[in-house]
Design brief:
This protein is an alpha/beta fold and 344 residues long. It contains eleven helices and 13 strands. It folds into two domains: 155 residues, NAD(P)-binding Rossmann-like Domain (Rossmann fold, 3-Layer(aba) Sandwich); 167 residues, Dihydrodipicolinate Reductase, domain 2, CATH 3.30.360.10.
Length: 344
Amino acid sequence: MTSVAVAGASGYAGGDLLRYLAQHPTFDLVAACAGGRAGEQLAAVHPQFAGTAWSDLVLDETDVDLLDRADVVFLALPHGESAAIASQLSDSTAIVDLGADFRLRSSQAWSDFYGGEHAGTWTYGLPELPGAREKIAGSTKVANPGCYPTAVSLALAPLARAGAIETTDIVVVAASGTSGAGRKASDSLLATNVMGSMAAYKVGGVHQHTPEMEQSIAIAAGIDTTDVSLSFTPLLAPMPRGIVATCTALTTGAHDPRAIIDAAYVNEPFITVLSKGQWPSTGSVSGTNSAQIQVALDERTGRVIVESVIDNLGKGAAGQAIQNANLMFGLDESAGMDVIGVAP
């Protein structure tokens, strides 16, 4: 068995991590740390665990020595909080960071979009990117991608790599469920303000995931990030979880976008390219580590449109973290995973 610990166990991503770990055949939970909710029983914080073998599990204080007893630590903490804990853990301890602290290569991009000192760069944990699996499997420190960047990168990376799109004119409009904003209470996330309504936020190129999306597309294409320009408009949708991303770019006209996407994901266990005419929906991947993709070509405007859906807490966070840890420890990549959604 491989011992695991979770920091940030009281959050939404932390709860999903524990859900995956509870059904994992190899990972053995030795610590679930929850900061302000320490001392409470798991089922009181995450009611979905009521009546299970873990319902009476008492959440721990966030203690570095406790975390360091595990073979692998999952850091499900707010952006900017992982680096301080990671720096205190043993070099031999494997870490998957679900926050943004180690995703970006550019310290300037970190400063511009997050502020403060850049902690460094770890292996980027999106296994479906070209060459990523081998790097993840050989790493002890992995930066789990953001939820929006996961959906967008899966949609556009194969096309960018094949030279099928103009990477300097990418437009993405994506809607996310409210859990993407975390569990901390805020007026904008009150049910009264969310139900029956939909609104954009962080408009005008200021969303913190923008440089990460540009970076992953540049890496896939083998070009500099300065050769990628992406306009991103996020929307808050009246649903608890899920992301639907509409990604468009000018076609170069030299390739068949559908054939490229099909070839890229034909052997991927978690990515499904839907049949022509079938469009992805967030409910189809809810509660899973799966993604669904569809491609269209607008011949009138010369733009490729790729629709991509994921569960922001699954493939966009906890599911992907487990997938990465499976690779890091030489396990079946699908161990402990759900791949069929719960729609409706």
